[in-house]
Amino acid sequence: MSQPPDKPTARVFFALWPTEAESGALAAWQMPLKQLCGGRAVLGKTLHLTLAFLGGIEQIRLESLIRAAQEVRTEDFELCFDGAHFWGRNHIVYAAPDHVPPQLVRLTGALEQSLDTHGFKFDQHEFKPHITLLRNARGTNAELNVMQPVHWQVMDFALAESVPQGGVMGYRVLARFPLKTGGFG
Ligand code: 2AM
Description:
The chain is of the alpha+beta class. The protein has a single domain, classed as Cyclic Phosphodiesterase, Chain: A. It contains 4 helices and 10 strands. The protein has a 4-stranded antiparallel beta sheet with strand order 3-1-9-10, with helices on one face. Strands 2-7-6-5 form a 4-stranded antiparallel beta sheet, with helices on one face. A hairpin with a 4-residue loop joins strand 5 and strand 6. Bound molecules: adenosine-2'-monophosphate (2AM). Adenosine-2'-monophosphate (2AM) binds next to strand 3.
């Protein structure tokens, strides 16, 4: 028999989770940005782009959450991170695409629709695709767009759990959901 979970709820969200090559390329932006903006670099292997944030849900609902994600059928796409920006309200420096591909908008729309259908609540703030690179950063007037663009072929999305690790927030990927290669022609 499998062990019962050690806590009744899990703090979860759906995200695009880069491969090592892509997260490595994005992590290379962190040092020059830190020199300009200070703050704390997010661990390279935990860099991600949040699609939908649910917060705490009961462990027993995870299976149903995974089924909701499995019903999402959208196509793979390329995402290009062109530059870094400072977000004063959250004190973060983040990487973002200049152009948001329509497939990404369709993916978040389909995911939200499926979550809704399955009775899951999620953060309804306007979707602003970004990857947080530095936390507790300060603003600067310096140009932040001095990095090499990072191209990412998005083949899947992930369900992740936030897990506190040694005083900072760590993340664990619980499941991955492939996108359809080549679209739906
Ligand atoms: P952030 O990087 O801009 O802080 C896990 O917390 C992930 O979910 C983070 O990427 C975080 O974005 C995102 N997120 C979105 N809405 C959130 C919320 N209401 N509370 C905490 N994290 C949220």
